[in-house]
C-alpha cells in the first residue's frame, strides 16, 4: 500500500507527464537514441537492470521538465551521461570513472566538471528524488511477500 | 551555465567549442529564495526563506569537481528527504550553488539547543519527568534512523534542539559530521564534541556501527541529570583515559578482543568502574540501570535504541 501511495505522490509531482504522441518527433528520436545508449553501456559494464531503469526514469522526468533544448543536439547526450552516472552511483557498488562511462560510440566526450554541472541540474530538476518507485519495486515487494526467496527465484528476478 | 564541449567525430577531436547554455531554469538561485542573516560557523548560516518568511539553517557542502557529485552524498540526501520524523530536523530544500561546486542544504531552524536549554532552564531540567520525556524523544529519533541503517556519528547537546514551549526535541546534523568533504569544520570554540564519542571510535578502529550513537545518547542522559558532561576530558587524547576512569578499563571479560583492537591498552592504568549512582545522583534506580546499558563499553553488548525504549525506566 505504501508503494502505491508513494507512486501516486510521485505522479502528482511530475506535473507534465512525458507523453510521446504530443512530443516533437525529434525529441522522441533523441530520447530513443539516449535510451539505446544507456542500455548499451549497461550491458558493457554489467550494471543491474535497476540502474538502467533509474537512468531512464531520470531522463524522462528531466525531459518532461522544460529544460530540454532541441537546438543543442549534444545536450541530450550530456543529459544521458549524467543520468546514467547518477543511477550508477545510486545503485552500483563499482562505478566507472566519468570518462570511462562514455563508451559505446558516444558521439561526444564531456569533461567531468560539465557532467557534474548537469548532474546537479538534473538532481535539482528532479527535486533530489533519486529513489522513485519503479516496476522493480513492486516486483521486489511481491517476491518478498510471497516468500519466493530461494536462489532460483532471485536468479529469475535478476533477469527481469 | 557555461559548458565546454569537445566534439568528437570518427575518434578525432575537431573542435573545442565553448558554448553558452542558457537554460531557462525554474531552478532559482540561492539568493533569490533565501536571505542570509548571520554566519553561525564555517559553512553554516542562518537565513530567511523569502517565500515563507520562515527562519532556516543553511549548510554549504562542497566537493571536488573531478568525478561529479559524490555517490554517498546523492544517496544520503535522497534518504534524508524521504525521512519524516517528529524528532528529526526537517531538510526543507537542496539548492545548487553554481559558482562553487557545492550544494546548500536548507533545514528548518530551531533556536534553543540542549546545551543552552540546560543553562536557561536549570529548574525545568531538574524534573525527572522532563528528563525522561527528552530522553525518550532522542531515542525515538535515533531508532528511527537506525531503522534506515543510518549512523548519525555526531550526536551531542549542540545538535539536539528543543522547543521550550512544547518541550519537543529534534536532532539535526546528519550529513554534516560524516561527509569527508568538510573534515576540518569543527570549530574549536564550539562545544567539545569528543566528550560524546564512543570508545570504539576513539581507538580509531573505523567501527561505524549504530552503537556509537547509543553511547552518545548515554552521555547526554547523564548530562541532563547532572547538568554537566559526564566524560569531560581536556582533549580528545585524554578522552579514552577519562572514560576508562569512570566505566573501568576494559578487560578480556568486559570487552573480549579489545586488547587486540587497541595495541596501546597497556599504557592505561587499570581502573575499576565507579559507582554511577554517586556520579549521577538523583537518578532513579531504573535510570541508572538504563545508563549502564547505554554506556556499555563493548559495542556488541550495548543496548540498541529500540531496546532502550522498552526499558523499565520508561514504563510509567
Give your account of this protein's structure:
Chain B: Belongs to the protein kinase superfamily. CMGC Ser/Thr protein kinase family. CDC2/CDKX subfamily. By secondary structure, chain A is an all-alpha fold. Chain A is built from eight helices and one strand; from the N terminus they run αααααβααα. Chain B folds into two domains: 4-108, Phosphorylase Kinase, domain 1; 112-314, Transferase(Phosphotransferase), domain 1, CATH 1.10.510. Chain B is built from 13 helices and ten strands. Chain B has helices spanning 30-33, 71-82, 114-120, 122-126, 128-146, 175-178, 199-202, 211-226, 236-247, 258-261, 276-279, 285-294, 305-309, and strands spanning 2-9, 12-20, 34-41, 44-49, 55-62, 91-97, 102-108, 112-113, 160-163, 168-171. In chain B, strands 3-4-5-7-6 form a five-stranded antiparallel β-sheet. Chain B is globular, with a radius of gyration of 23 Å. Chain A binds chain B through residues 65-67, 69, 72, 74-75, 78, 82, 85-86, 89-90, 95, 97-98, 106-121, 123-125, 128-131, and chain B through 1, 3-9, 19, 21, 23-27, 65-71, 74-75, 77-79, 81-82, 94-96, 98, 101, 103.
Amino acid at each position: 500500500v505504501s508503494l502505491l501511495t508513494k507512486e501516486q505522490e510521485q505522479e502528482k509531482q511530475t506535473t507534465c507527464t512525458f507523453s510521446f504522441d504530443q512530443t516533437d518527433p525529434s525529441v522522441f528520436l533523441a530520447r530513443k537514441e539516449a535510451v539505446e545508449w544507456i542500455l548499451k553501456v549497461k550491458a558493457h559494464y554489467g550494471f543491474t537492470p535497476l540502474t538502467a531503469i533509474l537512468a531512464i526514469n531520470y531522463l524522462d522526468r528531466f525531459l518532461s521538465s522544460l529544460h530540454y533544448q532541441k537546438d543543442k543536439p549534444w545536450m541530450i547526450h550530456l543529459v544521458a551521461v549524467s543520468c546514467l552516472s547518477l543511477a550508477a552511483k545510486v545503485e552500483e557498488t563499482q562505478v566507472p570513472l566519468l570518462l570511462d562511462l562514455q563508451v559505446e560510440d558516444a558521439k561526444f566526450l564531456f569533461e567531468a566538471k560539465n557532467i557534474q554541472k548537469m548532474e546537479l541540474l538534473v538532481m535539482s530538476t528532479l527535486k533530489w528524488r533519486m529513489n522513485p518507485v519503479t516496476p522493480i519495486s513492486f516486483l521486489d515487494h511481491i517476491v518478498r511477500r510471497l516468500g519466493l526467496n530461494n536462489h532460483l527465484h532471485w536468479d529469475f528476478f535478476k533477469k527481469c | 551555465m557555461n559548458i565546454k564541449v569537445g566534439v568528437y567525430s570518427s575518434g578525432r577531436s575537431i573542435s573545442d567549442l565553448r558554448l553558452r547554455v542558457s537554460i531557462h531554469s525554474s531552478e532559482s538561485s540561492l539568493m533569490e529564495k533565501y536571505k542570509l542573516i548571520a554566519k553561525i560557523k564555517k559553512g553554516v548560516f542562518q537565513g530567511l526563506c523569502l517565500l515563507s518568511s520562515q527562519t532556516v539553517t543553511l549548510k554549504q557542502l562542497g566537493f571536488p569537481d573531478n568525478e561529479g557529485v559524490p555517490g554517498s552524498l546523492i544517496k544520503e540526501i535522497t534518504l534524508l528527504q524521504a525521512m519524516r520524523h517528529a524528532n528529526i530536523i526537517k531538510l526543507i530544500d537542496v539548492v545548487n550553488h553554481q559558482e562553487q561546486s557545492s550544494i546548500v542544504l536548507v533545514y528548518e531552524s530551531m533556536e534553543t539547543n540542549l546545551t543552552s536549554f540546560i543553562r536557561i532552564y536549570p529548574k525545568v531540567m531538574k524534573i525527572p519527568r522532563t528528563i525522561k520525556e527528552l530522553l525518550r524523544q532522542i531515542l525515538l529519533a535515533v531508532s528511527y534512523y537506525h531503522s534506515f541503517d543510518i549512523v548519525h556519528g555526531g550526536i551531542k547537546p549542540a545538535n539536539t534542539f528543543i522547543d521550550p514551549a512544547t518541550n519537543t526535541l529534534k536532532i539535526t546534523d546528519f550529513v554534516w559530521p560524516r561527509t569527508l568533504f568538510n573534515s576540518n569544520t569543527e570549530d574549536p570554540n564550539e562545544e567539545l564534541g569528543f566528550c560524546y564519542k564512543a570508545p570504539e571510535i576513539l581507538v580509531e578502529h573505523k567501527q561505524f556501527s549504530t552503537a556509537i550513537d547509543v553511547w552518545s545518547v548515554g552521555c547526554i542522559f547523564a548530562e541532563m541529570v547532572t547538568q554537566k558532561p559526564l566524560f569531560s576530558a581536556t582533549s580528545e587524547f585524554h578522552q579514552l583515559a577519562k572514560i576508562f576512569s569512570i566505566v573501568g578499563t576494559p578487560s578480556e571479560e568486559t570487552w573480549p578482543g579489545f586488547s587486540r583492537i587497541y595495541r596501546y591498552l597497556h599504557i592505561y592504568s587499570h581502573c575499576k568502574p565507579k559507582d554511577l549512582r554517586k556520579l549521577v545522583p538523583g537518578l532513579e534506580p531504573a535510570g541508572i540501570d538504563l545508563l549502564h546499558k547505554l554506556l556499555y563499553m563493548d559495542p556488541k553488548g550495548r543496548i540498541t535504541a529500540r531496546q532502550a525504549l522498552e526499558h523499565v525506566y520508561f514504563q510509567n
